[in-house]
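If your schedule permits, I should be very grateful for your opinion on a structural question. The matter concerns a single protein, recorded as an amino acid sequence and a row of backbone structure tokens. Could you please explain, in whatever detail you think fit, how the structure tokens follow from the sequence? I set the record out below, with my sincere thanks for your time.

——
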Amino acid sequence: MPPLSEKPVYQALALPNEAIANGGVEILRAGIIDDELFVTARRAFSDPAEWGEVLAEIARRLCRLYAAEGEFKNREVIAAIESAFAAGLGAPAVKQSGKRRATAGRRKRAAPGKPAGGRSAKRAKPKKKSTER
């Protein structure tokens, strides 16, 4: 057995104070181990489209995290995430021209709290508070 000082340590994020105080349900955990992505998820919604809202909110919070550091602007971060997300799903590359980006077949953005397509959300919208680190 290697000495404790040489034992690898997984650097988990802290639980939000709200979760400690009020409880809740973790629906997604992701980590990088030896350059490989590991994901644990709970089938939290009856409609898988609800995950789109969750992923969009995660992207918005990541934008704020990068923008707060001052190196990037929100729109730069969201463009980079959107392009990589689309490419990761096998979609054609998102073309960027000036300040506007064009994507084929882009849906009209839904109002906050409502998914695209006009369906009402069947879950409570996550609070805007964030615990990004």
The chain is about 30% helix and 15% strand. The first helix runs from residue 17 to 22.
